[in-house]
Amino acid sequence: MAAIGRMACSISHDMRHSLAAVYANAEFLERDDICAGGRAEVLLEIQEAVLAMTERIESLLQFGSSGRKSPLVRARVSLVVEKAVAAVKFHPDGRNVSITVGKFPPTEADIDARNLESAIYNLLLNACQAAARSSHVPEVKIHLTEVDERIYLTILDNGPGIPASVRRTLFDPFVTAGKPNGTGLGLTLARRVAEDHGGSVCLVESNRDGTVFTLSLMKKNLLPLDDRIAVAPALSDEEAVMRVEKKLPADRQEERLDQLKTGR
After folding, report:
1. Phi, psi at residue 101, to the nearest 5°?
2. Do 131 and 159 contact (CB within 8 A), yes or no?
3. Does domain 73-262 have CATH number 3.40.50.720?
4. DSSP code at position 87
5. 139-147 and 200-207 strand pairing
6. Cα–Cα distance between 123 and 169 in angstroms, integer?
7. Hey, what CATH topology would domain 2-64 get?
8. For the chain, which residues make up each domain, given as ranges?
9. DSSP-derived secondary structure letter, 100
10. What residues form DSSP beta bridges with 215?
11. What is the C-alpha separation between 103 and 135, in angstroms, rounded?
């Protein structure tokens, strides 16, 4: 109950903040002494506020749902990743971040494309927000690899790292890792979606030079949901790193975070 109370206070505070921004900017638009450039800037601020409210509502609705409802359909995972990347680039927090995409294999899997795209979007948005706090040029890198019957999406950012104080509870609902306007549901929902696909989301590494997350999923999901999760537990960080790095190019194996440290 305490967590729900904190969540309600946080959400109501953020919604009031966004609504106040919309109201104030709408009043500015009524003025006759604002130039075209000023009006465009005000409209952009309104759009960003509405986007923020929409994302919070979507997160709450998804968190309150009783799990996956859409059937899994055979599809190319790289297309879902590309759609998530395109969406993040339109977000205010992703516009000024360099997002580098590796060469994606044409791997197919049984997926709920909409939910998977949402999970990847949340991870990418978190990475962009972290990279924006970097002392170097903000940068996010994405790699898609396959190991046997599993697919791994690895997301690297060159942000300052995740505070040690929240790492143990990072995937718990309403943990925001210090972000002022976050709902604390992005990682929770991303892991839930990955588990619906027989995989998980793991924090592989985080330090002052950057953070690495990996989302995994099975290529084929033939078992009922409850059984599938039981036979496909989340990989440990060490297992995820070893299995993904075996499929990365040789140069990536030797300098997994070096590129982030040098800002390239």
Report:
1. -110, 125
2. yes
3. no
4. H
5. unpaired
6. 16
7. Helix Hairpins (1.10.287)
8. 2-64, 73-262
9. E
10. 153, 201
11. 27
Rounded to the nearest 10 degrees, how much is the dihedral formed by the CA atoms of 246, 249, 251, 252? -70
Q: Find the helix packing angle between 77-90 and 113-131, rounded to 10°.
A: 50
Contact 175, 184 (CB under 8 A): yes
Helix (H) or strand (E) holding 192: helix 186-196
Question: 65 phi and psi, to 5 degrees?
Answer: -70, 160
Residue type, 247: K
pTM for the model: 0.64
Q: Interior CA angle at 60 toward 56 and 66, to 5°?
A: 155
Spatial separation of the C-alpha atoms in residues 141 and 84, rounded to whole Å: 13
Structure tokens at 184: 């604390």
3-class secondary-structure state, position 205 = strand
The pLDDT tens digits of the residues spanning 19-64 come to 777 878 788 788 888 888 888 888 888 887 787 677 667 756 655 6
Residue 177 CB partners (closer than 8 Å, separation 6+): 162, 163, 166, 170
CA distances from 96 to 34, 92, 102, 137 (A): 27, 8, 19, 9
Give residue-wise pLDDT tens across range 75-92: 999 999 999 999 888 888
130: closest CA among 105, 155, 158, 152? Answer: 158
- Give the residue carrying structure tokens 């950012």: 157
